């Protein structure tokens, strides 16, 4: 099983997704290097893929996909920070959670966002 750091980057009720050239939308993140703490991997991947630097992230949960264990973190980027597609990323964009279900997005992305939205709705209710 692969270990992946995955970031739910949330701003104004929208979630940041990234995509490689001719690929589906996904949450920012990537492989956790040997002996690298998951939070450090999440910060590194977010910066490498979008240029965003966040001062802190909150560990949210683990999500097990078919062959990958996602260590999911929630990040609240600075209000004036603008994500840019960097390195292997060709596109990055903010989406309302309701839009993500109908996008060409990875299954783990759709399911992680759905779990997050349900948890937030439960917390606010």
What does this molecule look like?
- This protein has helices spanning 38-50, 97-100, 107-124, and strands spanning 2-11, 14-20, 29-31, 57-64, 68-75, 89-95.
- The chain is α+β, with helices and mostly antiparallel strands and 125 residues long.
- The protein has a single domain (2-124), classed as Nucleoside Triphosphate Pyrophosphohydrolase.
- Strands 1, 2, 3, 4, 5 and 6 form a 6-stranded mixed beta sheet that branches.
Summary of the model, kept short:
This protein is of the alpha+beta class. 28% of the residues lie in helices and 34% in strands. GO terms for molecular function: hydrolase activity.
**Secondary-structure element sequence?**
EEEHEEEHH
Q: Count all strands and give the number.
A: 6
The residue fraction in helices comes out at 25-40%
Largest sheet: 6 strands, mixed
Q: Would you identify the CATH architecture?
A: Alpha-Beta Complex
Domain Nudix hydrolase: 1-117
Cofactor: Mg(2+)
Family: Belongs to the Nudix hydrolase family.
GO molecular function: hydrolase activity
């Amino acid at each position: 099983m692969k270990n992946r750091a995955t970031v739910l980057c949330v701003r104004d009720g929208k979630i940041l997704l990234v995509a490689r050239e001719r690929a589906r939308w996904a949450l920012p993140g990537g492989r956790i290097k040997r002996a690298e703490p998951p939070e450090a991997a999440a910060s590194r991947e977010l910066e490498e893929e979008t240029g965003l630097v966040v001062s802190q992230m909150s560990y949210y949960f683990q999500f097990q996909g078919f062959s990958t264990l996602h260590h999911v973190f929630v990040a609240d980027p600075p209000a004036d920070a603008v994500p840019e597609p960097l390195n292997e990323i060709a596109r990055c964009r903010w989406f309302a959670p309701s839009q993500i279900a109908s996008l060409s997005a990875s299954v783990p992305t759709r399911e992680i966002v759905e779990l997050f939205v349900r948890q937030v709705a439960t917390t606010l209710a």
